Q: What sequence folds into this?
């Protein structure tokens, strides 16, 4: 017998659960201003997230997927992306989108049931992908175009660990390996695919090692450590831009919420687990580090919360006061030019009385 | 200029557009060195190289999803599926993403992809190689479904489909790939989408069809002419969105209509055409609209497919029934 293949999966952590640096701080983050900026975004994200849930509970927003507890994952990804890169989200990526030119009021507009919520963003970034795990294929398509045009840019796509069971997920990694595409696949492993736990999703020891079969590098990252997320995503993006090598990052975090506001995790989540996991949550971890290194004060903390609350109020105001789309707008972007045969239907809906539903 | 077949016209259109538009990319299984299982992409790899003529790994959902991403970047991918029966893994990408991208981003991202596939039975192929499920796509808002039935229309309609700013399902009747030849000037002239083609002018009855059934329908029209029945033959060509105006104008003139398609009858596109004639042109009719279609069965394996396909005689019988309606 000869061993013809072996592999290793690395796990990366920089700031541990006790807020101690266990690796050298990446040079990009040496200036405390950088981590303060990231911290501000994480607090803004949590403030926004709590407000969105409150809006849903009071009937002012549709179904909404919370990112509570996963702030480091998404803010870290967003901070690592360059403007010229292309981002292909799933649907829990507010922390990235807010750094990609998407207005937070448009995120509410989307979850409030208005397609215009997909409009504002960097021109090339994709909108949410609700069909789970289908978007990694768009990322490799974009990466193919970038490679054909010999550009030094990368594409990053995110999905959950549940999506890593989809065929499309593997098909995307497979072609990225064969064609050497500048793409980064991120699996935000929050341990739950609605009610199905990680252990029931795959017998693979790690999700990261799914990369190996496609000829890619795979690694695990502590998803509650924003420094690790920022650094590993930055490195993977750099490798993609410079050498067209794709990477799979399995970012380990925990869903500190129901799947969406339409879900009730108490039906399946073992008692006490969420509380135990909360001890690792990302915002407090970074705050402690900043305070321990004299880069943050209680006064700044107080001012930040006030500022975030006020920002979110303005966002909600803008959302609530958005001018509704005309009913016939459902035909406006069906095709570049609406075929004649649908003109009658468009005309019809423009005079139609709204039907009460629910 | 040598006469060419329908499949050669497909190749000619792809090569013309690739020469004139560097954004056109051909991708699919075996489209490179092999030139495609039907040879529709033969010679393209040599002329345009592996960056623009891409053999993909064997995964149809991936082919469709890749094309969505490429199109969003301004490329114009022409994605080949080897047979219509193997498009199904790509349906999710086509229906959930390609058809909706323009709408859901309010025009920010568009999806000018052509998804090509050979379709239909009658070539003695193994199972799953004989499907005519065009109605599934015709049901989906945001898509165009285009089906040529001659070398000239394959050339002109494929050019138009590649140039169209929205996703097009381009279905090539494999039974007609090498059935006839005609001169097709390589002049880059597209034919109009969303328009029927009136292949034969007549006054007594309108025969509406598309794809490979154009062959039997034209033959039936010639036979009927000898019997004193003047049939107008309409090749729908774009079955989504439908050019119902041309069909209605013909039915207004003839007062009679038979719809012929190879696909299974139930919820076939013929049902929709028939309904539209009833809704908008009932008063023109002197007899009920009849349909001559494939049976509501799974397309049989090769030995029985000659019984499955609608025949010239079936069309003539249906016409006679309509003509004799009191």
A:
């Amino acid at each position: 017998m000869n061993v013809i293949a072996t592999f290793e999966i690395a796990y990366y952590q920089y700031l541990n659960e006790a807020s101690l640096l266990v690796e050298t701080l990446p040079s990009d983050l040496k200036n405390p201003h950088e981590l303060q900026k990231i911290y501000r975004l994480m607090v803004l994200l949590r403030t926004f997230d709590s407000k969105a849930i409150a809006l849903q509970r009071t009937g002012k927003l549709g179904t909404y997927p919370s990112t509570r507890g996963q702030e480091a994952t998404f803010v870290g990804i967003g901070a690592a992306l360059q403007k010229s890169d292309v981002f292909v989200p799933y649907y829990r990526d507010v922390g990235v989108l807010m750094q990609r030119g998407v207005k937070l009021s448009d995120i509410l507009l989307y979850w409030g049931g208005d397609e215009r919520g997909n409009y504002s963003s960097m021109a090339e970034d994709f909108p949410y992908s609700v069909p789970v795990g289908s978007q990694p294929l768009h990322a490799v398509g974009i990466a193919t175009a970038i490679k054909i045009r010999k550009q030094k840019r990368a594409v990053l796509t995110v999905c959950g660990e549940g999506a890593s069971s989809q065929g499309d997920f593997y098909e995307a990694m497979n072609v990225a390996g064969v064609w050497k595409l500048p793409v980064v696949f991120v699996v935000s492993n929050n341990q739950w695919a609605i009610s199905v736990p990680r252990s029931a999703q795959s017998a693979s020891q790690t999700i990261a090692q799914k990369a190996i079969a496609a000829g890619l590098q795979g690694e695990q990252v502590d998803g509650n450590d924003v420094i690790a997320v920022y650094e590993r995503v930055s490195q993977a993006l750099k490798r993609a831009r410079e050498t067209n090598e794709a990477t799979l990052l399995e970012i380990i975090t925990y869903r500190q919420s129901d799947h969406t506001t339409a879900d009730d995790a108490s039906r399946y989540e073992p008692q006490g687990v969420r509380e135990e996991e909360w001890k690792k949550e990302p915002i407090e971890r970074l705050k402690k580090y900043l305070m321990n290194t004299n880069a943050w004060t209680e006064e700044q903390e107080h001012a930040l919360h006030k500022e975030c609350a006020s920002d979110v109020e303005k966002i909600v105001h803008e959302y609530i006061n958005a001018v509704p789309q005309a009913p016939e707008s459902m035909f406006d972007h069906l095709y570049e030019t609406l075929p004649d045969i649908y003109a009658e239907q468009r005309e019809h809906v423009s005079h139609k009385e709204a039907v009460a539903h629910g | 200029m040598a006469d060419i077949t329908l499949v050669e016209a497909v190749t000619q259109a792809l090569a013309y557009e690739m020469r004139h538009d560097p954004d056109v990319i051909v991708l699919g299984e075996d489209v490179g060195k092999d030139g495609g299982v039907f040879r529709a992409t033969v010679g393209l790899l040599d002329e345009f190289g592996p960056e623009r003529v891409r053999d993909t790994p064997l995964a149809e959902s991936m082919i469709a999803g890749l094309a969505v991403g490429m199109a969003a970047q301004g490329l114009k991918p022409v994605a080949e599926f080897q047979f219509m029966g193997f498009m199904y893994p790509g349906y999710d990408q086509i229906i959930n993403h390609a058809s909706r991208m323009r709408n859901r981003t309010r025009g920010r991202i568009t999806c000018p992809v052509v998804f090509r596939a050979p379709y239909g039975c009658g070539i003695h192929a193994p199972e799953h190689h004989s499907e005519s499920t065009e109605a599934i796509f015709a049901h989906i808002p945001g898509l165009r479904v285009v089906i040529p039935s001659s070398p000239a229309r394959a050339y002109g309609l494929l050019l138009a489909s590649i140039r169209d700013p929205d996703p097009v399902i381009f279905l090539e009747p494999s039974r007609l790939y090498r059935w006839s030849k005609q001169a097709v000037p390589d002049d880059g002239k597209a034919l109009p989408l969303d328009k029927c083609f009136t292949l034969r002018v007549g006054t007594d009855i309108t025969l509406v069809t598309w794809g490979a059934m154009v062959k039997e329908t034209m033959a039936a029209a010639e036979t009927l002419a000898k019997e004193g029945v003047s049939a107008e033959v309409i090749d729908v060509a774009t079955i989504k969105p439908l050019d119902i105006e041309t069909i209605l104008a013909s039915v207004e003139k003839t007062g009679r209509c038979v719809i012929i398609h190879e696909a299974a009858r139930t919820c076939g596109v013929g049902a929709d055409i028939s309904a539209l004639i009833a809704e908008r042109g009932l008063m023109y009719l002197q007899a009920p609209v009849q349909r001559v279609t494939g049976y509501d069965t799974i397309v049989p394996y090769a030995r029985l497919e000659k019984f499955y396909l609608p025949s010239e005689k079936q069309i003539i019988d249906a016409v006679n029934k309509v003509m004799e309606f009191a």
